[in-house]
Amino acid sequence: MALSSKNFVNVNISHYTSASVSGSRNIGVLIDCNSNITDFENGTDTYFTSISDFTSQGGSTSSVLYTYVLAFFNNGGQQIHYVKISATGNNESDATAIVEAIAELPTDEIVIASTCSNVVMQIVATKMNNNSLFSGISEKKLVTYLHSLTVSAKACKAVRPAVQPSSQEDINAGAFYTATAQTKTISVGYLKDNTNEYKLATEYSENKTYYIMKYVGNDDYENPLNSVANLSNIIVKYGPQGIEMTVLAYLSQINVYRGTIADYCYTPETVSMFKPTLSDGITENTGVLTSPIVDDNSVFENLKKVNINCDINLSSYGIMEYGGNMTNGTDLVNDFIRIVLTQTVTDRILGVLRNKLRYNQVGLSLVSAAMSDELQRYKAFGYLSTEKIWSTEDLYDSTGRYLIVSKNTPVTQGYLFKILPFTSLSTEDLQNHMLPSIYLVIADSYSIRTIEIVGKVF
Predict the structure, then answer these.
(1) Contact status, residue 116 vs residue 34, Cβ threshold 8 Å
(2) I need a labelling partner for 413 at 20 to 30 A (CA). Which of 97, 146, 222, 331 fits?
(3) Which pTM does this prediction carry?
């Protein structure tokens, strides 16, 4: 029997199917690290596509977790990736566990909330900041809540109002307006056993004389987010725990290929699943009502100062989100899209590299064409601005040898990029078949940022 020619030349021609690239990141991640939530066992890793899917998998409609799910899906959220991890009750340990869980997430799952306290999430944000595990295409954004802005104890005073609460509804509301000064109060309470010890009221009684705790004098709130105020990886929403799911819901609806990129600010929202509750850590002498809607002007002004998102009621326009920023002031939608752009451009380049490019100028031209094609999509749907100028100093590569863009260069396409020449590669880079570094400059609607992309033939 003759030897088969396949031993020497094996021709197998098949139709090439291009890998698809998605313009949507429609999954919001919820990491459950709360021992008081018992819907699912530790180690559970699943996806919810709807409220009914949540309940069919074992979620309880009377659980705290149900509020998170309602806030997400009732505001148009697409899909929740739910991960249940063991809680220790120690803030540092729980934060470490959450960081480890985030490191295991798929690259395209960008935005993460948690059922733990905002204190733990601030520790998580600090741990992830400047961590190379969460950079480039693996960058993540954290979302948490803030239930109150704190004030000095000297700025609070218990006073007896002229008009007393007259029903349980007044007590449940926790705050009301005095009949004369129209001053917003913090809480409703009474003096314990005819002493000066103030206690929060929970049940209405005709036999009690009620007092209100209100702000007096200094209206300058302290910022409880000082530790993360300058970090670029955390978003904060004012309101009860779980309100942050409205942010995840909004971002999960964006598809960069369908023209759905828009500012989060002034987005209509549904927050009826949240009832006013007293904040964590209340004492005998203080109590701050946490409402999903900000209707106090001083609170609103102070939230704006520290870049905390909130819901407001614009009379006939209804309840809307206000803010739209990260805690460091960066527009959160633009920053989210920047990460998606980094991922989709990388996917397009990998799609070219899988064809085993020749290591010459023709190969680089194919990479360049793939990048231009992808970036044109972002330009078409309004993310990239064609009216920006690179106004800072000349930009060079990391070695300082190659000029990327000169000062005062118009970025008329909304982007420009430069693939360094083969001479920029070291001997080791050549041995590893590295593609020369690609420097990409993008001009979004707020600012120009640079992204360095390094490709590899494999």
Answers:
(1) yes
(2) 331
(3) 0.74
